[in-house]
């Protein structure tokens, strides 16, 4: 066949697709010319354009890692109620945009009937953004989809209601590299033991210069072990970050017993009111207990409950804590404060209290 | 593995009200006769094994498509002996349309492709924004990519290169939007495609685009090049609508929830229930506009603030992006071209000056902000700092020249 001679297909480097071709026609028509919006109910945004056109957006939670059957079901719903258009949010919620108000209630009914919770708007707890975990990453000490599914079951009421002082963003990461980032509550795995090195394999598969360079605290040194080139780790220096594993899989950091979950609070990306802030450690040492991680859920719910009770309207979690102070935060949540809460990494002194300001 | 494995632990993740990914995996495993059914049976077995032993069993490798050096994340199973059909389970990172808009026709085509060549499992979306087509063997990577590429989709980033980008919904549906995020994203990223598809940078480089300070795609903290919309003139006020908010929220409500929450004390409620705004103090934080969406809106002189150097933990700890351009108007085609040029300059400077495995923010910390600004040709501005220097250990013999520069710039600005 002539196939053998045909030049191989080279990629069309088409880059980022133009969204206009997929956009709901009313959005396209009023692009850049919106006037105001409100929220008629939880899970629904109502936007009014300067032209007078109106759209209702119905937001629903998904499981993010979806089988094609689920995606097709979501498409069927879009075809029936939303003129065949959808968009996704950065937190894997799906948004149906409807130009005809009479379709809003039937759409909500349909989504809920098919098991997709409607919510995630305003002062709710939105879907947890998550990383890959056991399903796909090469260094995870825990699962991401499983922790998130378990937590979202617990948080269902908070997703479908807007009862928090302000919006709550939760993120998870399955190793200390923390692809998942930070949020009002960030949950991430901490390795608590330095890597175990399989010296027999190092010579074969390890990119040794890369792994030495990768360590943030210069804890890794080249060494000769049993006459073969290998590596050694200064265990006093090691901060158990896991960064050495990808370039050197024989430096095994995954550990069923000693990988624990930690919870951090008060991260905020936006510049709304206060400047963006980083998350801060509040709990460590939670056991890694599949399939439902009850200890993690319990602690997250405790923190959320305290914030819900005590936060004022529009205060994000970090702003609430800034007002009440850390002593009161630990008191209200019933969580212990330890020496590990005191920063000793770069710039650590900036986080100490250099004033007479104390809370009682 | 002919039969669906027993998965007592994963089964527990099917309970509860939230949609379950496990149910989806099982549905795919049940698709008897389809090529993805055996893959998914095997994957369920491996995942259950991870749940039992609390360990992951994937290792990386190198897999790519013709012409590109990145965008496919190779995964080989370490327990392939027990779970052979999912021994190769690679991910294709595919760039979504800006703003993540789809029609059902395109989504159905993606499903058809992935059902035919892959596992039938797709994540909308990864944390950097990619559509992640998860679960493909080495042989099908090229055919899947070709099919998706024919649909008008392209691979995203991985490794030491430019990464996939995100923009907020912005102009498509949000009245707060201060520039055309989708256009900016497409122009900037499409200009960097070579550094995405053939990665040879010191490390990853991410850019993100949010239409205002609400920063719905987390650009500030999570991108090396963050573009945030803002405005330079006054907030627009509809005082009649303000009065309606006062009528519903009450004066105390408006004072507590709007006036007293302004970070720069720029707001004051007048005795006649109109709102007074000291626009010179306003930092465009969006709070008052978010609360009173009908009464307040961004001004007319719209543009962007640009920050550089945000990133997560490795290697020196978290870094927030910092302002390198306090304001640039975004109106004409030239403005967008200016943005593309700036992004290119920053990328080139990073490519030439960062150390191996060093992000833009770490490079800035190592060489100093002044050297970075010099390198990319931007002038200093007090908006770039929280406060001026406190340490007195510095040589300042060039002071007079710098004062002259500042005065000449300001003289020029005043004369405009
Ligand atoms: C083998 C190692 C790694 C794997 C398998 C991995 C996997 C991933 C995946 C799947 C994503 C989402 C991608 C997407 O949405 O397109 C991601 C995002 C991310 N990764 Fe990694 N990652 C690895 C190493 C790292 C390292 C070393 C760092 C940091 C130093 C890092 C930082 C991040 C961050 C910050 C994000 C989120 C970016 C954003 O939201 O914009 N990752 N990673
Ligand atoms: S957080 Fe760590 S384990 Fe999880 S996906 Fe990112 S690199 Fe992998
Ligand atoms: S775990 Fe991190 S700190 Fe420890 S040796 Fe590896 S790279 Fe270094
Ligand atoms: S960042 Fe601003 S413009 Fe963009 S969607 Fe959010 S609120 Fe709207
Ligand atoms: S936008 Fe923010 S800083 Fe400006 S007046 Fe409103 S609340 Fe104050």
From TrEMBL, chain A:
<dbReference type="Pfam" id="PF01077">
    <property type="entry name" value="NIR_SIR"/>
</dbReference>
<dbReference type="GO" id="GO:0050311">
    <property type="term" value="F:sulfite reductase (ferredoxin) activity"/>
</dbReference>
<dbReference type="InterPro" id="IPR011808">
    <property type="entry name" value="DsrB"/>
</dbReference>
<dbReference type="InterPro" id="IPR045169">
    <property type="entry name" value="NO2/SO3_Rdtase_4Fe4S_prot"/>
</dbReference>
<dbReference type="InterPro" id="IPR036136">
    <property type="entry name" value="Nit/Sulf_reduc_fer-like_dom_sf"/>
</dbReference>
<dbReference type="GO" id="GO:0016002">
    <property type="term" value="F:sulfite reductase activity"/>
</dbReference>
<dbReference type="GO" id="GO:0020037">
    <property type="term" value="F:heme binding"/>
</dbReference>
<keyword id="KW-0560">Oxidoreductase</keyword>
<dbReference type="GO" id="GO:0051539">
    <property type="term" value="F:4 iron, 4 sulfur cluster binding"/>
</dbReference>
<dbReference type="InterPro" id="IPR045854">
    <property type="entry name" value="NO2/SO3_Rdtase_4Fe4S_sf"/>
</dbReference>
<protein>
    <submittedName>
        <fullName>Dissimilatory sulfite reductase beta subunit</fullName>
    </submittedName>
</protein>
<dbReference type="GO" id="GO:0000103">
    <property type="term" value="P:sulfate assimilation"/>
</dbReference>
<feature type="domain" description="4Fe-4S ferredoxin-type">
    <location>
        <begin position="229"/>
        <end position="258"/>
    </location>
</feature>
<keyword id="KW-0004">4Fe-4S</keyword>
<dbReference type="Pfam" id="PF03460">
    <property type="entry name" value="NIR_SIR_ferr"/>
</dbReference>
<dbReference type="GO" id="GO:0046872">
    <property type="term" value="F:metal ion binding"/>
</dbReference>
<keyword id="KW-0408">Iron</keyword>
<dbReference type="InterPro" id="IPR006067">
    <property type="entry name" value="NO2/SO3_Rdtase_4Fe4S_dom"/>
</dbReference>
<dbReference type="InterPro" id="IPR017896">
    <property type="entry name" value="4Fe4S_Fe-S-bd"/>
</dbReference>
<keyword id="KW-0479">Metal-binding</keyword>
<dbReference type="InterPro" id="IPR005117">
    <property type="entry name" value="NiRdtase/SiRdtase_haem-b_fer"/>
</dbReference>
<dbReference type="GO" id="GO:0009337">
    <property type="term" value="C:sulfite reductase complex (NADPH)"/>
</dbReference>
Automatic annotation (TrEMBL), chain B:
<keyword id="KW-0408">Iron</keyword>
<dbReference type="InterPro" id="IPR036136">
    <property type="entry name" value="Nit/Sulf_reduc_fer-like_dom_sf"/>
</dbReference>
<keyword id="KW-0411">Iron-sulfur</keyword>
<dbReference type="GO" id="GO:0020037">
    <property type="term" value="F:heme binding"/>
</dbReference>
<keyword id="KW-0479">Metal-binding</keyword>
<dbReference type="Pfam" id="PF03460">
    <property type="entry name" value="NIR_SIR_ferr"/>
</dbReference>
<dbReference type="InterPro" id="IPR005117">
    <property type="entry name" value="NiRdtase/SiRdtase_haem-b_fer"/>
</dbReference>
<feature type="domain" description="Nitrite/sulphite reductase 4Fe-4S">
    <location>
        <begin position="159"/>
        <end position="377"/>
    </location>
</feature>
<dbReference type="GO" id="GO:0046872">
    <property type="term" value="F:metal ion binding"/>
</dbReference>
<dbReference type="GO" id="GO:0051539">
    <property type="term" value="F:4 iron, 4 sulfur cluster binding"/>
</dbReference>
<protein>
    <submittedName>
        <fullName>Dissimilatory sulfite reductase alpha subunit</fullName>
    </submittedName>
</protein>
<dbReference type="InterPro" id="IPR045854">
    <property type="entry name" value="NO2/SO3_Rdtase_4Fe4S_sf"/>
</dbReference>
<dbReference type="InterPro" id="IPR011806">
    <property type="entry name" value="DsrA"/>
</dbReference>
<keyword id="KW-0004">4Fe-4S</keyword>
<dbReference type="Pfam" id="PF01077">
    <property type="entry name" value="NIR_SIR"/>
</dbReference>
<feature type="domain" description="Nitrite/Sulfite reductase ferredoxin-like">
    <location>
        <begin position="87"/>
        <end position="150"/>
    </location>
</feature>
<dbReference type="InterPro" id="IPR006067">
    <property type="entry name" value="NO2/SO3_Rdtase_4Fe4S_dom"/>
</dbReference>
<dbReference type="GO" id="GO:0018551">
    <property type="term" value="F:dissimilatory sulfite reductase (NADH) activity"/>
</dbReference>
